[in-house]
Amino acid sequence: MDKYLFKFRFLILGLILVLGLVLRQNDLYTWPRLGATFDEYAWVWLGINLIQNHVPISWSPHPQYENKKDIIYQKAHFVLVKPYLEHPPFFGLVAGSYALVNGAKDVFDIDLSRIRGLALILGILSIFIIYVFAAEVYGYKIGLLSSFIYATVPTIVIGSRLVQNENFFIPFFLLSLYLTIKFVKTKNSVFRNVAAVVCGFLALSKAPWVVAGISIFLIFLFLKRYKDALKFIAIVIPIFSLYFLYGIYFDSKLFFDLLGFQLQRYDLTFNSFFALFTSPYLVDRFLIDGWIYFGWFAIFILSLKNFRKNYLLLLPFLTYFFIFIFAIPNEPQHGWYRYPFYPFLVISIALFIKEYFNKNRIYTLLLLMFTGLSMLQLTWATYFGFSFIVLRLFLVLCGLSLLPLFFPKTLKKTNMLNTALLTFIFLLNIWSVFLYNEQ
Question: How far apart are CA 233 and CA 326, in angstroms?
């Protein structure tokens, strides 16, 4: 079996990419709905204005701006500000360039059909890069399983349809980690230097994306490769410093006023961490997705088991976790801030399945219940209405996973049942994506 799986791994990856494409393409321009976040327009307008007018102009509600103009566009109110300096320009240039190539003439000639194709491209790229990264660290089986889970989890699929900076960050953050791994294995400095350039341009896309450079810097420190750490940041810092030159060039006072405001505007409280679990925002609405909740459990188990073995996964995750808690956690209706956690949660789930599924009875039961109950809520209950019979039947079937603890001879049949249930849950993932709406 392993021989054939290895032989056809790229064919399987191709099928996973097609599946991910189909799920993301479905209702691409419908859900999330227009206005779930108008950040999609903010990034595109920033880029188009930089390209066409050579000045950063976009919409913003922040009081620091003095040069502002109220407009109504597509029945929504925006405050256009000039110069728009609250974020670095690079992702705006990417989003704006895509819109122009896709036929937009200017900032008032865009809609979701002209811009969300970029999100689709980034979503498929993320599935591929997750395979590349996970396969390099843990082998092709974990790579395939991780990419498949990432391709089908409802929260991830639907969230990846947004033209948001986080969806740009994910594939290139993973790419920088992959290049770092290649450098550690081959000692070819080209990999390290390219990773540093990628991290530098990520920081020019959104200030919190310095997390990519910090993560790799910490990896080098963890490996006691101090010279490589210094050479790495010697490339990253000058690139990121271009953001300050950019802000000072257009309006230094406004730039530093906005920088101070950005550091204090979020709803930071001692309970902010718990909002990750109590306020499961997808975009601006809740979506209770058991895969995401279980991912946190899986990465917790992974961190307890062997940190050194899993440092390439855990150090980047913990770095973003710290940045998230330190600066950007409990912003209401801003679910995309959580997206960079998801690749690491998904890979942790894949490792959990390999290590514990059908091997640890309690963990197997928890996996089936966490994921299965939420997917039934998003599918059966949505389509047919809630059913006591379906709920209790599913719970009984999950409970049968414990039978070998009492009747060892049932092990083989129970394992077959567990595998069938997990396959069924994956099918529910797909169904839930097709059923998703915000009505």
Answer: 22
Task: State both tokens at 109.
Answer: 């000639």
How far is 58 from 384, CA to CA, in rounded Å?
Answer: 44
Specify whether the CB–CB gap between 164 and 205 falls below 8 A: no
Side by side, the strands of the sheet bearing 58-59 are 58-59, 76-81, 68-73
Instruction: Tell me which residue of 161, 153, 220, 155 sits closest to 192, measured CA to CA.
Output: 220
Tell me: pLDDT of 267 over 70.
no
Paired tokens of 16: 């996973």
What is the DSSP code string of 236-264? Answer: HHHHHHHHHHHHHHHHHHHHHHHHHHHTT
Helix (H, G, I), strand (E, B) or coil at 379: coil
Q: Which residues contact 85 (CB under 8 A, 6 or more apart)?
A: 56, 246, 247, 250, 251, 254, 255, 258
Cβ neighbours for 171, distance < 8 A, ≥ 6 positions apart: 122, 125, 126, 128, 129
Helix (H) or strand (E) holding 430: helix 411-435
Helix%, strand%, coil% for the chain, nearest 5: 70, 5, 25
CB 58 within 8 A of CB 46: yes
H-type helices in 160-209, by residue range? 165-186, 189-203
pLDDT tier, 380 (very low <50, low <70, confident <90, very high otherwise): very high
| Dihedral-angle region of residue 437 (phi above 0 means left; psi in -120 to 50 means alpha; beta otherwise) | beta
The four Cα atoms 161, 165, 168, 173 give a dihedral, to 10 degrees, of: -130
Strand, helix or coil for residue 34: coil
**Region label for 387, one of left (φ > 0), alpha (ψ between -120 and 50) or beta (otherwise):** beta
pLDDT tens digits, 53-93: 999 999 999 999 999 999 999 999 999 999 999 999 999 99
Q: Rounded to an integer, what distance in angstroms lies between the CA atom of residue 437 and that of residue 36? A: 12
